[in-house]
Design goal:
The chain is of the alpha/beta class. The protein has a single domain, classed as Rossmann fold. The chain is 30% helix and 29% strand. The chain has 8 helices and 8 strands, in the order H-H-H-E-H-E-H-E-E-H-E-H-E-H-E-E. It has an 8-stranded mixed β-sheet with strand order 3-4-2-1-5-6-8-7. Strand 5, helix 7 and strand 6 form a beta-alpha-beta unit. The chain is globular, with a radius of gyration of 16 Å. The N and C termini lie far apart (44 Å). It binds S-adenosylmethionine. S-adenosylmethionine binds next to helix 2, helix 4 and strand 2. This is Methyltransferase domain-containing protein.
């Protein structure tokens, strides 16, 4: 298997474009725009990534995770998850404590559907989440799946928590996001041309329950 998984993205993307959304992994420019804002004195954060893929965004997120934080990544394609573990040099377990550089941080990767996030979090004894970072392609995903994912996001995020997701800029905005996330406000939008396809990174904050 290629170390960075370029070939697998093309193959899996062509095979199932409605789930994968593209034929190349997310660029580092988009990944950097999606990282959670965690400051040194903050209480422990819970950060979830939906649609880990081969780990291009994961790699950036975990640079910002401290030993006291929790990171759980969820991916529905087992082949991608395998490449992700290889890319991040993680052993082949769903839960690992990884010594990344000189930092002993917890990186947990789960094979599963983002719709089942509540069930997955229960397994890890997590009830509330500070940040959800998501590159699942909502515009091409079946509407029912998008709705289920967004309902879960709404439930598990803390008030004040952030949902950071992408929109391919050539795709029209979907009303289902503001309709379901009606207790959220948009706090940031950033267009990144250096991605295939060009992408907008949108950050929404949950205002209330
Ligand atoms: C656009 S790709 C980006 C992946 C990742 N950021 C990368 O660059 O490798 C979207 C990812 O979402 C995953 N995905 C799609 N639907 C999903 C779902 N319902 N639950 C979990 N992952 C899903 C796909 O398998 C794919 O890996």
């Amino acid at each position: 298997m290629p170390k960075n998984g370029k070939g697998i993205f093309l193959k899996e993307g062509l095979n199932d474009i409605r789930s994968v959304g593209t034929i190349v992994s997310t660029s580092k420019f988009v990944a950097r725009a999606m990282v959670p804002k965690i400051h040194a004195g903050d209480p422990p954060h819970v950060v979830i990534e939906l649609g880990v893929g081969t780990g291009s965004v994961t790699e950036e997120i975990i640079k910002h995770i401290r030993p006291q934080d929790t990171f759980i990544g969820i991916e529905s394609n087992e082949k991608f998850l395998e490449v992700c573990k290889a890319n991040l040099c993680l052993p082949d377990h769903s839960v690992v404590r990884a010594g990344i550089g000189d930092r002993n941080i917890s990186v947990r990767l789960e094979y599963g559907l983002a719709q089942n996030i509540e069930h997955i979090l229960k397994k890890h004894h997590v009830r509330e989440v500070d940040d959800i970072i998501c590159t699942i392609p909502f515009r091409v995903l079946p509407k029912k799946e998008t709705k289920e994912i967004l309902e879960s996001v709404k439930k598990i995020l803390k008030p004040g928590g952030h949902f950071i997701f992408i929109r391919y800029i050539l795709a029209p905005e979907t009303k289902v996001i503001p309709d379901i996330l009606d207790t959220f406000k948009v706090v940031r939008k950033k267009i990144i041309m250096r991605n295939i396809p060009p992408t907008e990174v949108i950050t929404m904050e949950k205002v209330s329950d």
